[in-house]
Amino acid sequence: MHPRLVVAYVGGLLVACGGVDPTAVDKVTGQPGDVASVRLFDPRGTELTLHTGLVDNAITRVEVRMFAPDGSRLQQIGGGVELALLFSPASLATSAPVPGQPLMRDVIPTAASGASGSQEVSLQFPGDGSTKFFGPFHVQVQAGEPGGVAEFRLVDAREAEYTQHVPLFVGDTLRLEARLFDSSGSRLANPAADIAFRFEPETLAAALPVPQLPFWRDLTATSPAGTEGSLFVSVRFLADTVTRTYGPIQVLVH
Amino acid sequence: MLAVLGMGLPGIVYGQHQHAPSTGAGLIPEAQVGSGTAWLPAAVPISGYHVRPGRWSLMAHGSVFLQFVYDFGTRRDYQLGSVNWAMAGAAHPLAGGTVGVRAMLSAEPLTVTERGYPQLLQVAQPYQQVTLTDRMHPHELVSEAAVIYDHDIGAGIAGSLYLAAVGEPALGPVSYRHRPSATHDPAAPLGHHSQDFTHTSFGVATAGVYTRRVRIEGSVFNGAHPDDVRTNFDFAGARLNSYAARLTVNPDPRWSVAAWGGYLAASGGTHAHGALHRVGLALLRSAPSGVGGTWSTALIWGADVPSETRRALHSILLESSLEPGSNDAVLGRVEYVQRTAADLALIGSVRPELDLGALSLGYARRLLSGYGLDAWLGLRGTMNLVPEDLHLFYGSRTPLGVIAYLQVTPSRRADHLMPLGSSQCTTCMR
Known about the structure:
The complex is a heterodimer of chains A (254) and B (430). Chain A has 254 residues and is mainly β. In chain A, 5% of the residues lie in helices and 53% in strands.
């Protein structure tokens, strides 16, 4: 093979790169006719398009994002847009507007947990008087958690996430906070609850309370490096004395 | 990459070499070994390098495409990039059998970026909090890291054990990157996700028994999809929660027929998927053609049956590569796939299930040969076929795409061929 071709080829590989960045192709403003599809999200950015789970004792905020045929996101529509969610069966849920957020609705389930159905998105465009419908999107009402808690997370002081895996280093102490969130993703700042950390095996590690910080624990390994086990966090809600246990969370001693 | 693999070994043999040296039992030609534990037709060994220092058997092969991709229509996109892979293996007698190790690498996370390369109608993928559509993901930096042990267990019958930190379970056909019928085709099949998508699974154990013509095997493996960081190892939370079985029959050196079935457990994470069953059938044929040429064809059917819907989603692929001599290659691929609206990130905007098709035709010409490598210049065009639902999104019922490429592969010039087992090759390195 000719050496110059080899050099050109290797050079080409080195400079090769992606063309259009598909994560950065949002359009700011479009027209009603540009809206070709929609997708649903919660306030934390979790996509709900495939499935929207409603908690039977909580409000779920749903954001509708609009997309052009080429897949780029339309953040505004000339002339404005009015959103409505149509549930089937109608007894499944209702929704209310969110002030100042025309593409968000607060959804309140009106059916018992376990009920399922669908929702349809209606976008009305005052600018040209047209309306577009998208859907159906699957909806299911799920049993609520005690105390209005929908999510549990473990984080450290730097906001690093440990909910899936807790690495412990022999001789070090890891300080973690148990945080509780409601179904809208809002953190419950001072939940009326007690927490307890439990390791399996019990010899794996120790979790010591932190004075003045009831939801924090100092975790130290009590097993040699290479030991693996699990962490369970129990939350006892004082209002109804219901205890909810989260885990197993993988723990590995390094 | 290939040059390093190929030129660093003294006494190397290259050309249409015998593939991974993992068949210690000696029942089958090494050329019959494809990706993972899948079998190829043995009649047309793929190109690579092979050397046997002492009792060791070492091999390396791969392919590097420098490509310019352009998709037309509403979702037009382009990219200058490279799809590529390299595989290396070693085998040595051990305890009456043969132990082999194998590794496969790809620089695609860098050379097509972790967002992948444009490909209309490919399955949408999550990436950094957004959903990428119409792009094929890059392959993992480490696509295979495996140990294989083969041992005779009777007259004309052998057993094998394949353990892979990263590897391919007995589910699906030979991965498209290893199929002779796709040798000069840089693009992934549209049916990749229902045919050979599990070829990079983080945790695989496969046990099998085989004769010269029949192989039966079963796998347990981690059914979680790799996440969108392609340069790491996705072992966090990994479990051998999925299983598969495959029957392969090679009635003669030109044919390989395989049927498989398996279960992929639901998994979470950024690339979460529901539980599903997967079945399929593959017919591969490779035979010499013309003077020093080959003709390889694959017919593959794959189907996913999600546990939630219990409705099968089918894909059918017919691909062929005809090399009438040693300097020209004509490649073609015809596909039919059933996609869900979720696959295209269009839930609620189109019907829940859609029938898609694609016709691809290409031609490659060998430009140069030297240093143990061949350079091919190729052009490949695709006409996709979409239903009316997708007209709005793609701008037509027949959105088009082209790929122009320069491919470098191990040389397959006939005058470089050396008989397997030779550890001396005085004419190869020029």
